[in-house]
Design goal:
It comes from Rhizobium etli (strain ATCC 51251 / DSM 11541 / JCM 21823 / NBRC 15573 / CFN 42). By secondary structure, this protein is α/β, with parallel strands linked by helices. It has 18 helices and 15 strands. It has two domains: 189 residues, Rossmann fold; 158 residues, 3-Layer(aba) Sandwich (Rossmann fold). Helix 10 crosses helix 15 and helix 13 crosses helix 16.
Amino acid sequence: MARRAPCRILQPAFDECGYRADRRCGDTRSIPLTLKATTSLSDARAFLGDAPVMSKRRVAEAESARETGQLRVAIVHYWLVSMRGGEKVVEELCRMFPQADIFTLVCNRDRISDFLKTRNIRTSFLQKIPGAQRHYTKMLPLMPFALEQFDLQDYDLVLSSESGPAKGIITRADALHVCYCHSPMRYIWDQFHVYRHGLPWIGRALMSITAPMLRAWDVTTASRVDTFIANSDYVASRIRRFYDRESVVIHPPVATDDFAVGKGKGEFYLYAGQLTTYKRPDIAVRACTEAGRKLVVIGEGEQLPYLKSIAGPTVQFLGHQPFNVLRDHLSRCRALLFPGTEDFGILPVEAMASGRPVLAFDAGGARETVSSPQVGFRFAEQTTEALLETMAAFEEVEDDVDPHAIRAHALKFSSAVFRDRLANLIEQELSSRGDRSAEVFRKRPG
């Protein structure tokens, strides 16, 4: 008969057969016991004879990590195919945890930053499908299977970056899983009909068939998360609505030091971002065409041909531009026009870090960032007429705008503030579990 492990390494939550009830989810099904990284090396080797769930190499690595106090960290991001808000959060996470490995469904190394290219990035089987880097969104029904194939058993802390599916990964039972939620998946929840109407008939049919199953999976996998972080109060309310979970609000990091206050009052209005239906760039184009105001449009997307067809001679389209061009235009614009609904919206904060006001639709994260007349105006209706009225009101007081006061407001959303708040939360979560890594984490450099 196989030798039993000494009783001292078993926790009160395990039954006599070495199985554990998942109390967090209220699930009484038995789950095989997994060795904790905090188990001593001698006890671990004794236990291996009864239930060889870890190789001797893994036991040794666990003991070494424990002695050094270093957390083994995994960062899970939905896909790395561009450098937008979610990817900038991933960059900050990598700076906080330089030892972390990145797991993502699909990666296009030609479209990510040089900093991310230096990281250890592991992709799913979707990466091997021809055309995956361009048509990844069409593989949504396969994404739950791809995520659950990632082996995260070696990691003590898992940080999932959620907007597409990311939180559905399977972690070790005693690992800490913190989900930074940019948004519950829009295309299966509140933006379902918007995305569906933009598809050909075969796409609409497939989406109608698969969406109910994806919603069920999305809700179920919310129980795999120990702590939710929302990037805004707006997203926190959606997490509560769709997942019935509470969350801590930590605004995403904005690299405010990368921007500087421009000179003069500005030469043109600016729209920047994806040219997609839900962002409503058509409102900005129509308003400036009708008012005869100069508008520069930076971005690309499926709406570009339509926008060009309705634009007047005062509207200039620059397409996709590198960061230095965007930064230059942010510093020289009269104001940023932001007519869409975003969960947070990093671009308005970048504009304010450049000392420029923002004219935004009164919804989503803009309510938290464009929070006073000193930094911009919000319009109540998502229409061209409402934006025209707001532009007229802004132009009446434009000469009184204080660029340095606007920038001071933007600094509340800096990367340093993000890192400090996130570090404190993770430290608290580790401490509440009695994890000794919390003390080492507390003393980390920077």
